[in-house]
Automatic annotation (TrEMBL):
Species this protein is from: Herbidospora solisilvae
Coiled coil: none
Keyword Iron: no
Family stated for the protein in its record: Belongs to the aldehyde dehydrogenase family.
Aldehyde dehydrogenase domain location: 13-439
Superkingdom field: Bacteria
The name this protein goes by in its record: Aldehyde dehydrogenase family protein
Keyword presence, Isomerase: no
Lineage: Bacteria, Bacillati, Actinomycetota, Actinomycetes, Streptosporangiales
Pfam families: Aldedh
Amino acid sequence: MHYIDGAFVPAVETAPVHEKATGAEIGRYALGTAADVDRAVAAARRAQPGWAALGAPERAAYLTAFADHLRSRYDELVELSMRETGGVRAKAVDEVSAGLKQLAISAVEACGTAGDVLQPYKAGKLSLSRAVPLGVLGIITPWNYPVNLAMRAVAPGLAFGNTIVLKPAELTPIIGGRVLAEAADAAGLPPGVFNVVEGDGPEAGHALAEHRGLDLLDFTGSREVGTAIALSAARDLRPVRLELGGSNAFVVLEDADVELAASCALIASLEFQGQTCISASRHIVLEPVADAYVAALTRKAAALTVGNPFDGVDLGPLISEAQRDRVHERIVLPSVEKGAVVATGATYDGLFYRPTVLTGVTPDMPAFAEEIFGPVLPVTVAATEEEAIGLVNGYPMLMNSVFSRDLMRGMAVAERLNAGEVHVNDAHARHGAENQMPGFTRRQWIGVQRGPLDLPEWTRR
């Protein structure tokens, strides 16, 4: 069911939504069309001037009410996230909490500074720079963190006077779209300010990505789709913000605390079964500690439990058969054929894929060169620090981690890595919505998100 111009709109055609762990049907979603997208964009365009004209405290009050209605359904949303995404309870709690936190942050940001007093060009003159809304934002979100990644764009977008058309991923349309529409409706947001169009990527997603009525498209997803969107937008000079995938690195220097590094590696590579854009896809380890690191990593990974998230396991199912087959048949098996060795894992039952440690991984293998998006930890041995840095910097990435007992050395190595965000002696999957996200990440991110840099991203001067 769509939410357009303040009303829930039934669709002519629908498709099932399945619980990932059991395969049971838990709902249906609308198969939106280009016409549905047109109506939503038109509604957002009509509503935008009035929304922008509200006082900042009024918009902040709407965002607070939006958050309050989501919070009133907190336990329900956590369980729905577990069913619809397949994530364990801790992941679902983090995701829903981060979405609520983003709304709270944006409500405060709405009342902050919206311009600057500039040095005058001539004596006796006053020069001002004022931030104004972009206008109508199209937002296409992925299935891995549907609440948090939607709110990361929706909340600041609304706070600064923009109106929204959201297209949630077809694998998570209820938690990622419909419940947000229900909360916005209950909060009394004016008609047209927040719209949701459900549907598949090739139909509704393509229509929104190509729509000339948008002032900005925000897309989070695969590098392939993001590249196609960027090329299409460039032809018409349409602005886009992209957060795409990458092959993130986890660097273990020879003076690292190996047990700490291995424990953090499980978080960095296996949060939500490794299905995140910031998952560590490459473990680059200095030779003197390689054997100890592999032993610790294998021991810890083999001890993890996999199953239904409601059974208190460590890892849930992968999101779909297509994703499982990609991990196994495109990443793991071809890498093994080229010489990688399975230390543990590389087996599955349905969508439940065992955490997998691969050793002897080299740059010519898919497990090194490609984003994995699954519970696989490929280990590559480097002879020197320089070689390790070269192995990291040769591939697109978002975030990295570096482990060393010498903090200054770890920071020095971090400064040489071409990633937007690097963590020293910590897993780069730990940090929340209030932290600044990178604006430079080797072609994987166009734009800056979170914290004090929200304002220039969602406004123009």
